[in-house]
Amino acid sequence: MDNLGHLLDGFVNVLSPGNLLMALLGVVAGTAVGVLPGIGPAMTVALLLPVTYGMDPTQAFILFAGIYYGGMYGGSTTSILLNTPGESSSVITSIEGNKMAKAGRAAQALATAAIGSFVAGTIATLLLVFVTPLVVTFAVGLGAPEYFAIMLLAFVAVSVTLGSSRVRGFASLLLGLVIGLIGIDGVTGRQRLTLGIPQLADGIDVVVVAVGIFAVGEALWVAAHMRRKAMPVIPVGRPWLGAEDWRRSWRPWLRGTALGFPFGALPGSGAEIPTFLSYAVEKRLARRPEEFGHGAIEGVAGPEAANNASAAGTLVPMLAIGLPTTATAAVMLAAFESYGIQPGPLLLERQPALVWTLIASLFIGNLLLLVLNLPLAPAWARLLRVPRPYLYAGILFFASMGAYAVNSQPLDLILLLLLGLLGFAMRRFGLPVLPLIVGVILGPRAELQGRRSLQLSGGDLSGLVGGPLSIAIYAVLVILLAWPLIKRFVPGRAL
Amino acid sequence: MRNRISVLLAALAALSVLAAAGCGATAEKGAGTAAGEGPVTGLRLMVPNTPGGGYDTTARTAAKVMEDAKIASGVQVFNLPGAGGTVGLQRMINEKGNGKLAMQMGLGVVGASYTSKSQATLSQTTPLAKLIEEAGAIVVSKDSPYRTIGDLVAAWKKDPKKVTVGGGSSPGGPDHLLPMRLAKVVGIDPRQVNYVSYDGGGELLPAILGDKVGFGASGYSEFLDQVTAGQLRVLAVTSTEPVPVLKDIPTLKASGIDLVFTNWRGVVAPPGIGDADRRMWIDALTRMHDSQQWKTELTKRGWTDSFVTGDRFAAYLAEQDKSVASILAELGLA
């Protein structure tokens, strides 16, 4: 339990007024950038770097860690209230979260997200303390074939989001895959579907797609229907979690944590996949699966826990072997370097005080986030009382600002409007919008890992099956796909 | 006489910029700075990549040193990412004649200008200075069968498709160009090279550590700590002289392979800027390079100084441009 002693030392270091102030500043700033679509924690940390040059490195990292955790949390607020995901990792939160908000349960959705994030963040940070070496060995052992298998699993898992009509669901998914194709092909360096526009060479940012399809599409849809009948003001309801909500939330929190933490530690998987998997798992395990799609609290609790746990998971390879697995971690690594600290396998030996203080500050930051956001949940929820025309004007304003902030390109605003029209048309013709976003996020990654596997094996299809993990994942896939068949031949149990 | 004209031109240029910006500084101040007195104002440095990346760090550090050393005040660094820097390059060309703007760039932008088939090319810009460079390294994991670069090259020649190369940049980027140049020098057809592109050093590192690729090619600083910890083995560095922190590692040249390859970063200005503006930039960058603060930053960040300005940088850039174009053309990418 040597680590525990170090951690306590870390707490002693972090509990100075100056450091606490930094942690508070960090989580407030993080929540703010999480709420604004387009401005992510990575960009915030990068822009703050020059400001922190004069600071003590420990304080700077406490600030950055606060921003990172805060950003993961803040993204859920707009997802739930406005159906506008602030970050791609909270896209899935908006499905059930926004339905809950529309049913007058916004405060409960926000609260379960806040508490779930706290629970997940705390457990995952504890795991960070104790299992880091193990996780790192595991993560390094995985190659492209394993990642490809994980992507396929994610695709199958999200098929539960396809909605009631499979044909419409797949149509939407295919639209997403096509949007995901736009840009320079990472393997050959050739351009695809860019129409000769250089700004399209990097593809369309997921945030622009999500905000366009969700927020702008929704605003247009509401605007088109408002004239016929006055829309009732959304009820706000009770402000706190009831006993029933607690009972339904705690298991998804823990399962979300278990999914999010390992995925955060895997390079190149990101925080989105565990949220997809968590949603699928909750839907399958729910006692009342028919509530999914109409505001099931499990669908908010699980994914929100998953994205926060993955934030802690990200720090595992970063602190242990100097390996950034997300953009924010990469910027934090650059920050380490600017202080003359070489991150890598020797970091813990050379700078134990810094590392343990950073980890201790994560616990503090997590607690601050809960203290800050739980009382705010009813206040945020009241935002929905704003009459619709003003509310949606505000949403359009933030959506445009966010889309522009991603790359500061006017072209993104045009894309945003086009995608908004697409979102409107999809609502008009009953196409679910979520599979599209899933396609945009997962498509390019699955393609990259699949082609990379084939490259590594010299074009041999057997290269798609790597180590034991990929075989295990494929086995799970087969069972999942064949489940309806198996069910028919297993007598006795009616499922 | 010429000096007076240049001062006049600088005053005119400064005036026009100030007028355009609607800013309140006086003309005398702008003119004085061109001659090298007091801090220059109103400079803008464009980074054609996202915040936090290599170009961004270089530009922000340079801007900070200029501020601290009182060479320039209020240097504005802004990002215009896209297509490996080509979107930013296009903007530079559009800003023709703007003497207060410069762009941070490097070898990656040279490659991207070809792979993205950009209308804008670096030959149109006004080269100002090359700032730093970094030697590349050929790296394998500690369990790799290749003990020397000779072992590796022999195995690679025997079956180029089977020995995969991992690099942290997309096709056209520095980590892609390095193995292609190496292949060509040792007599392998670059089209036979099985290059696997990873998203930066962060993704590349586990692939090398986990023996997923035959060998890795990237800047040496990406791997420094893993080398110290004994998890990775550097077979060769690609500079002319051995790298001080890896002093036992031979260069390619010392191993009998006639190739020197460095990834460098420099600064260019838009086309058609006035002589005075060009001199003002070069003067400011030279003073930045000579400052104590820059030297401190170089050591701290492990950057290798390779300061070259004006026409010498222009010649270097032209030579790099040509070599990149020829290898990419051979691969069918340019």
From TrEMBL, chain A:
Pfam families: TctA. PANTHER family: TRICARBOXYLIC TRANSPORT PROTEIN (PTHR35342:SF5). This is Putative tricarboxylic transport membrane protein. It comes from the Bacteria. The chain crosses the membrane at residues 20-49, 109-130, 136-160, 167-184, 204-224, 315-336, 356-377, 389-407, 413-442, 463-486. Keywords: Membrane, Transmembrane, Transmembrane helix. InterPro entries: DUF112_TM (IPR002823). Residues 20-437 form the DUF112 domain. The keyword Cell cycle does not apply. It comes from Streptosporangium sandarakinum.
UniProtKB/TrEMBL annotation, chain B:
PANTHER family: TRICARBOXYLATE-BINDING PROTEIN, UPF0065 PROTEIN YFLP. The keyword Signal applies. Pfam families: TctC (PF03401). Residues 1-19 form the signal peptide. InterPro entries: BUG, Bug_dom1. Keywords: Signal. The keyword Ubl conjugation does not apply. This is Putative tricarboxylic transport membrane protein. It comes from the Bacteria. It comes from Streptosporangium sandarakinum. Belongs to the UPF0065 (bug) family.
